[in-house]
Amino acid sequence: MDQNIRNLISAHGAHVLGIETSCDDTGVAILRQDGQILSNCVNSQLRQHLSHGGIIPMVAKEYHVNNIDRVAKEAFEKSKLESVAKNISAIAVTNRPGLDYSLQVGVNYAKHLAKKYSKPLIPIHHMQAHALMPLLENRSIRFPFLALLISGGHSLLAICERYNKFHLIGQSQDDAPGELLDKVARRTRLRNLGPPFDRISGGAAIELLAKRETANRFKYFINERTIPMMRVKTCNMSFAGYRGNLDKIMPTIDELWLRGNREKLLDELGHLCGSLQRAILAQVFRKLYRALMYYRMHWRYNNPQAFQTTSDDHLGFGIMKFEDSEDWLDIVVSGGVAANGYLLDKIRECCATDIESSKPVNVYAPSKSLCSDNGLMIAWNGMMRYMDHAQTNICDKDKGSLQSRKDLNETVICNSDEMGRVNSLPVCSIGLDLIKIVEKADFKLPKSYNKELKLMS
Ligand code: KG4
Ligand code: ZN
Q: Which residue positions in the chain have pLDDT lower than 50?
């Protein structure tokens, strides 16, 4: 093990501090090597952005600037550690992708801490961190797994071969599902319904209202013709089109708001929200199924290296690989929208009852509070990289040479000159882009596949 890093791992194991500021949550957490969460503090800007009618990047930045030091101090105090200098082994920070102004606040703060206390800096990819989050709570998830990441800023399908090796197989061409939910919530003025709707996200408000739906009345969000990307033979998605369907019901909703008939309004909104959730599910599940088929019919044969070692536990976390490329597969669903109990239950249900019946598929998600942005997922991803580097003797302090920015993003940086070269990257793919290869594979879903129709009924 590298001596510099060995020195930073105390008797209780390494402690990684994780910082997240890629969008509108200021998150700082401290994680111990054995998986013990010492603290996980988040300052959400949700209420402020609800009153502005959406996230304004410069406003989000101001809130991060005003809160990051307080949240970091709170996280450190909660951890009951003695001092940053003595106990923290490394500082991990989201530097990609996200809102540039927001990312910069976290990156600058992390650099400042790393330099001040002479700690290694670990730049983290936000979406990779979402995908790895469930592995902290559940070590029985095995590599390679299929990740469905649905949040306010992204919608993507990827195969995670290793903690640091992802293959992108599909993504949204326009809005992310969380973005759609937030826009619909805004247009229907859900926050004006009062508590709790004035303090929860658009997605959470829509999930809550959808529970009132007594019968599947509104089918116009989903029918054979209106499911976007249905006939496209990729795993790409599109959610912006659903907003057009709102036009049909908005006059009714507007009138109910005017008349002030709350019960009737809640009923109507309930049907609308239920219908919207089904519409999102129909598309997401179809693309997930397609991704699964791509994995089974192509990827596992073309990537034998992913199965070559029977144990991938050299990181010491008890996370294993599948031993062969047989039909085993785990699915991870993560990101803010994965907090939606309806979507998650239905995805689990669909995977359990069909998917070529005899072939095992387990669906995992983080616990609800860890689906949305937090510092813990950054600390956890940072911990994996830290232990990997500690055990494979790579610490660039000793290499003496400046590395390319891409390399810097994938390493543990001990050299302060190189820390200076770590920047925010607002756009950054989760990994190797296989979307064109998926398209070329040109396969059809089986004729018997009619999940959307079942979901509509
Ligand atoms: O991952 P996240 O915290 O931030 C991004 O990286 O985008 O996701 C935030 C998104 C928001 O659009 C929010 O409306 C949505 O997650 N969300 C939900 C639920 N809770 C949060 N969507 C559906 N159902 C929920 N219960
Ligand atoms: Zn996120």
A: 1, 396, 398, 400, 402
CA distance 313 to 315: 5
The structure tokens 């994680």 sit at: 31
**pLDDT score recorded for residue 393:** 57
Q: Is the CB of 213 under 6 A from ligand 1?
A: no
| CB neighbour list of residue 219: distance below 8 Å, 6 or more residues apart | 275, 456
Query: According to the model, what pLDDT value does residue 400 have?
Result: 47
Task: Tell me which residue of 66, 71, 60 sits closest to 99, measured CA to CA.
Answer: 60
CA distances from 435 to 165, 171, 233, 415, 439 (A): 16, 8, 10, 36, 6
Distance CA(128)–CA(245), nearest Å, equals 33
Residues in contact with 98: Cβ distance below 8 Å, sequence separation at least 6, in sequence order = 21, 22, 23, 126, 153, 424, 426
304, 393, 346, 303: which is closest to 3 by C-alpha? 393
Question: Best mutation site among 130, 151, 188 for ligand 1, i.e. most ligand atoms within 8 A of its Cβ?
Answer: 151
377 lines ligand 1 (CB under 6 A): no
Are 457 and 141 in contact by the 8 Å Cβ rule? The answer is: no
Q: Using one digit for the tens of pLDDT, what is the confidence trace for 320-372? A: 888 776 778 899 999 999 999 999 999 998 887 656 656 778 999 999 999 99
Residue position matching structure tokens 């949240």:
71
Which of 214, 337, 346 has the alpha carbon at shortest distance from 281?
Answer: 346
374 lines ligand 1 (CB under 6 A): no
* Unique residue bearing structure tokens 């600058």: 108
Residue 158 contacts residue 444 (beta carbons within 8 Å): no
In tens, the pLDDT along 21-78 reads: 999 999 999 999 999 999 999 999 998 888 888 889 999 999 999 999 999 999 999 9
Ligand 1 pocket check for 97: Cβ under 6 Å: no
Neighbours of ion ligand 2 (CB under 5 A): 151, 373
Question: Is the CB of residue 419 less than 8 Å from the CB of residue 154?
Answer: no
Atom 4 of ligand 1, nearest CA residue: 152
pLDDT in tens, 153-162: 999 999 999 9
Q: Which of 23, 128, 333, 337 to mutate to test the pocket of ligand 1 (most atoms within 8 A of CB)?
A: 337
What would the two tokens of residue 74 be?
């709170």
